[in-house]
């Protein structure tokens, strides 16, 4: 009789811990997805101009998340200009710089004009060491300058469309 009770208790404890572990893993995965989503916010400024402000560290995993979000948003929202503000990036892995450079090319392939703002001297030095001398898009010193230029370009584009 004691053996049967012990077996039932073992089954209960085993089932409980398996259920707990599965629930915990699902919660962790949901939280990871939420953090991934928040790590690359794409903010619409107008119908065609969007900003991707980045802060913190840019590593390979985060670069892949950014790539996925950026390309999906361009396809979904018909983004004409994407301003990627890197002024909040304190540190970046060398492989992420190369990955980011290729992302600029992918953005252009989708018909969107990428503008990079806020490149820090340390990141520019890394780019030079890696023999990356240019991005496939425009660069501006500040986010304010990038916004001004892209808004002016959008007005010119709209004027040509209306005139012609």
UniProtKB/TrEMBL annotation:
Domain (STAS): residue spans on this chain: 39-150
SUPFAM superfamilies with a match to the protein in the record: SpoIIaa-like (SSF52091)
Recorded superkingdom: Bacteria
CDD domains: STAS_RsbR_RsbS_like
Chain coiled-coil ranges: none
Transmembrane regions listed in the UniProt entry: none
Name of the protein described by the UniProt record: STAS domain-containing protein
């Amino acid at each position: 009789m004691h053996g049967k009770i012990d077996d039932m208790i073992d089954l209960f404890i085993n089932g409980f811990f398996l259920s707990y572990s599965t629930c915990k893993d699902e919660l962790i995965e949901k939280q990871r997805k939420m953090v991934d989503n928040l790590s690359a916010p794409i903010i619409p400024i107008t119908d065609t101009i969007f900003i991707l402000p980045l802060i913190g560290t840019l590593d390979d995993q985060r670069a892949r998340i950014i790539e996925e979000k950026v390309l999906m948003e361009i396809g979904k929202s018909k983004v004409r200009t994407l301003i990627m503000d890197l002024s909040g990036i304190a540190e970046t892995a060398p492989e992420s710089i190369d990955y980011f450079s290729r992302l600029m090319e992918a953005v252009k392939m989708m018909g969107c004009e990428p503008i990079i703002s806020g490149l820090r001297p340390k990141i520019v030095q890394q780019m030079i060491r890696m023999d990356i001398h240019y991005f496939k898009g425009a660069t501006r010193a500040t986010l304010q300058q990038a916004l001004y230029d892209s808004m002016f370009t959008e007005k010119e584009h709209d004027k040509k469309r209306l005139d012609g």
